[in-house]
């Protein structure tokens, strides 16, 4: 049984197929050029209000900031934000990261972007801005979709180039003004796509909410770091450097006494490169490292471990004692195939899947915050399915709970 995430999981946020063709978009625009999609969402309703966003920014552990510009002077304050009254009525923006992880209803908006792989979607950043609010012209190193909620904003996007960044505030990077290739005002339900490396600027015309879907794009450094971390943890990649005698006996020197022991010859660098290349020439290891990296949220969820470990044999009984299965905030879940076997990888933990466990995985992956346990019971048909749920419960990534008043 193969689970279809687009089936039996209705969402209020569905891309307007008359305005947006995912196949044509991926073929013609994705990571190539920016575009504006008018009425990408018909009758768009904000999943969060400005007051709710402000309340969220006051909570500890929520990544938020206020950016303002008055008389040409930029300022940035990090949350928790405790006083909005002093900001005035114009020229400031509140930006809150990972709203989907702190406010489950906002998670629904991300479902519309599942024409891209789940692991590519980083988070939903929500901004509230007053008239004149913005963060100035800047570059992002990742692709982004920005959906216009209430209000309106003017967006300008320029051609990529070699821009020298400057910091009008220590925590705010900007680029110089640019010649726009897109200069459009977005109204509720409109959407703009901006590929990585394209300079852009958003200026608020009327009090606005914007929803930025950021795409995860690991760098070479992050991938190599993940490989190194995995190797150190598991004692992998232990092949060590060995000298080549012909390099030690350099024929360009008449005698060993004439050598320069402080000199690092180019041949040594070539040998180190070969040693590193050999580490990368291990497909099985790279598959494991990448799967674990992409299944982990860079903002790790806080696990809630059970007092006593759950067992597969008692799992159905345990589920019957509770009303709902709750998903920890920020859990990342992917599947991958190794040697013809399908696996689930959840926050770096591996689980073998059969068809029943795959169906259960699909249900769990599609959950926003909770599901009724009566629904879950229908999926616990095989040993693999029970082992999957047991593992996730014992890792504290899913929690059985009662819906107490």
Automatic annotation (TrEMBL):
Keyword Lyase: no
Gene Ontology MF annotations: 2-oxoglutarate-dependent dioxygenase activity; metal ion binding
A single GO cellular-component term on record: ribosome
InterPro entries: JmjC_dom (IPR003347), NO66-like (IPR039994)
Transmembrane is among the record's keywords: no
SMART domains: JmjC
Keywords for the protein's UniProt record, in alphabetical order: Iron, Metal-binding, Ribonucleoprotein, Ribosomal protein
Boundaries of every JmjC domain copy: 105-232
Pfam families: JmjC_2 (PF08007)
Cofactor: Fe(2+)
Protein name per Swiss-Prot or TrEMBL: 50S ribosomal protein L16 arginine hydroxylase
Species whose genome carries this gene: Aliidiomarina shirensis
Phylogenetic placement of the source organism: Bacteria, Pseudomonadati, Pseudomonadota, Gammaproteobacteria, Alteromonadales
């Amino acid at each position: 049984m193969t689970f279809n995430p687009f089936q039996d999981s209705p969402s209020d946020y569905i891309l307007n197929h008359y305005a947006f063709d995912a196949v044509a978009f991926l073929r013609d625009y994705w990571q190539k050029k920016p575009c504006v999609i008018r009425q990408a969402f018909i009758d768009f309703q904000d999943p969060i209000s400005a007051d709710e966003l402000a309340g969220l920014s006051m909570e500890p552990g929520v990544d938020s900031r206020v950016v303002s510009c008055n008389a040409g002077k930029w300022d940035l304050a990090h949350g928790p934000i405790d006083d909005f009254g002093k900001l005035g009525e114009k020229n400031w923006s509140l930006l809150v990261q990972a709203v989907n992880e702190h406010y489950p209803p906002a998670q629904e908006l991300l479902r519309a972007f599942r024409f891209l792989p789940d692991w590519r979607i980083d988070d939903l950043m929500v901004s509230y801005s007053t008239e004149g609010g913005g963060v100035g012209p800047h570059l992002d190193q990742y692709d982004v979709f920005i959906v216009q909620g209430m209000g309106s904003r003017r967006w300008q996007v320029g051609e990529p180039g070699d821009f020298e960044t400057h910091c009008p505030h220590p925590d705010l990077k900007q680029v110089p003004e640019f010649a726009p290739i897109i200069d459009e005002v977005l109204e509720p339900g409109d959407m703009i796509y901006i590929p990585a490396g394209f300079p852009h600027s958003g200026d608020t015309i009327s009090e606005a909410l914007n929803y930025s879907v950021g795409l995860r794009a690991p760098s070479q450094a992050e991938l190599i770091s993940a490989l190194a971390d995995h190797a150190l943890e598991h004692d992998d990649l232990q092949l060590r450097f060995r000298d080549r005698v012909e390099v030690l006996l350099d024929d360009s020197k008449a005698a060993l006494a004439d050598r320069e022991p402080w000199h690092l010859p180019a041949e040594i660098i070539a040998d180190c490169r070969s040693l590193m290349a050999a580490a990368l020439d291990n497909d099985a290891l790279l598959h494991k490292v990448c799967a674990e990296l992409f299944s982990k949220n860079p903002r790790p969820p806080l696990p809630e471990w059970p007092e006593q470990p759950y067992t597969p044999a008692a799992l159905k009984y345990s589920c019957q004692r509770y009303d709902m299965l709750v998903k920890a905030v920020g859990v990342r879940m992917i599947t991958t195939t190794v040697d013809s076997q399908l696996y689930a990888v959840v926050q770096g933990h591996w689980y073998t899947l059969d068809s029943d466990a795959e169906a259960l995985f699909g249900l769990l992956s599609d959950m926003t915050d909770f599901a009724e346990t009566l629904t879950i019971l229908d999926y616990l048909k095989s040993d693999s399915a029970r082992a999957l749920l047991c593992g996730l419960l014992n890792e504290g990534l899913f929690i059985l709970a009662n819906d107490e008043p």
